TrEMBL record:
Family annotation (CDD domains): KaiC-like_C, KaiC-like_N
Enzyme Commission code: 2.7.11.1
Domain KaiC: 6-248, 250-483
Protein source organism: Aureimonas flava
PANTHER family, sorted: CIRCADIAN CLOCK OSCILLATOR PROTEIN KAIC 1, PTHR42926
Pfam family, one: ATPase
Protein name: non-specific serine/threonine protein kinase
SUPFAM superfamilies in the record: P-loop containing nucleoside triphosphate hydrolases
Keyword Transferase belongs to the record: yes
Keyword Coiled coil in record: no
Keywords for this protein: Hydrolase, Kinase, Phosphoprotein, Repeat, Transferase
Gene3D superfamilies for this protein: P-loop containing nucleotide triphosphate hydrolases
InterPro entries: AAA+_ATPase, Circadian_clock_KaiC-rel, KaiC, KaiC-like_dom, KaiC_dom, P-loop_NTPase
Molecular functions per Gene Ontology: ATP binding; hydrolase activity; protein serine/threonine kinase activity
Amino acid sequence: MRATSDRTSSGNAELDQILNGGLPSGRLYLLEGAPGSGKTTLALRFLLDGAARGERCLYVTLSETREELLAVAASHGFDLSGVDIFELSSAEAVLGEGREQSILHSWEVELGGMIQLIQNEVERVAPSRVVFDSLSEMRLLAQDALRYRRQVLLLKQFFAPRATTVLLIDDLTAGEEGRRDTHLHSLCHGVVTLERVTLDFGPARRRLQVQKMRGVDFVAGYHDFTIGRGGLQVFPRLVAADHHVPFVGDPLPSGIPELDALLLGGPLRGTSTLITGPAGTGKTTMALQYVDAACRRGEPCTIYEFDERIGTMMVRAAAMGLELAAHVERGLLRIVQIDPAEIAPGEFAWSVRREVEERGCRLLVIDSLNGYLAAMPQEQQLILQIHELLSYLNQRGVGTFLINPQHGLVGSMIPGSLNVSYLSDTVILIRFFEAQGRIRKAVSVLKNRSGPHEEAIRELRIDGEGVRVGAPLAEFRGILTGTPEYSGETGPLMEDRTRA
């Protein structure tokens, strides 16, 4: 049965999404990548998808044996019983008993015989989908680039009237003088490149790129992917502008009137709030206060924890009266522990998308930005990627809280090395100050892009009664040093309280 649609699925839903519907049917495509990048796995999924649709599918293996191919399929749980496999792994299989002759060069006979056997098998099976794995054998037999290109062109012309969708696999064997062989790109209707990058620490990163696809408005650029049992898990590059939904930008209250007064009601939905300050000032606890309040309103929330263990955070939250465990049991809160060096930026963005689009997440916390950057130290353009992710969350009306620890326990009030104006809409700064021989904490708002905010500095206390914010404190000195000193009366300052 032939495919009736003008598109043929690649067998991978996310790759089809990148291609805006799949591969144009009846064309010749090149799937290239270094060994171990996932080419064979993707090609098998391509054929299995066709077999599931009732199409005849043919896998022509020019280097691997049938047993090796079946072993690869078994490792992914694939059943190839519905796929025809044609094995051409040796010259004897091509030439038979007539290989000993002296009129023609052996490579001319081998290449011509191989192409003829493939054509005969295609005419016998009449497949809708064909995979050639791999072209390196044809390249070696052709001896020179011109003859190799001519043979591939003959294959393209052979398949054209048969409306067969063909996938050619190339392992990027170097051409003359070690140069990469790319002259097939012009012959193929589309080119998909798989890459495998080994980092200094952690697992290898894999990504794919659609180099060209005639007649298709595909999503350009690199897309991260992983290989697991069942095939490739592709994470399409996030384009925030494609995901806007209407929403009401109402405030997100914390449940603490004095804290909400700093932002005249709270940060708005569809904005990002950066909470910054030295270690130990209560940045995560403040974000958890907003999470607890949102869950009490029945809004799904998600916390991505890069730094602290989830168990430690839950114990600390319970001591302050925050019912995170109850929210988790009710399904309103999901806490995800991120293992450093085990996740790519695209995979993280895809996880966030699932939380928003499948769970309906309304408030999201990333703890912390430093942990995010440290988890992917060799990735390029991480700041641009996190900005695109925040833009996506803003487009979906999600309130986002980012935790950004300052360097050192005390010091400059500049929030680390990140461009906070570029990353966030609102910046809440927590810092230490001295008063009556004690180290205390102060909270203030540096900016609020979505509206006015209180300019006062208030005292912040986190104790047995949870998060408490005091009255505005006016008599400060040394504010710009990052460690201001309060010289006022003792009356406005708060005292420790222990929960009964």
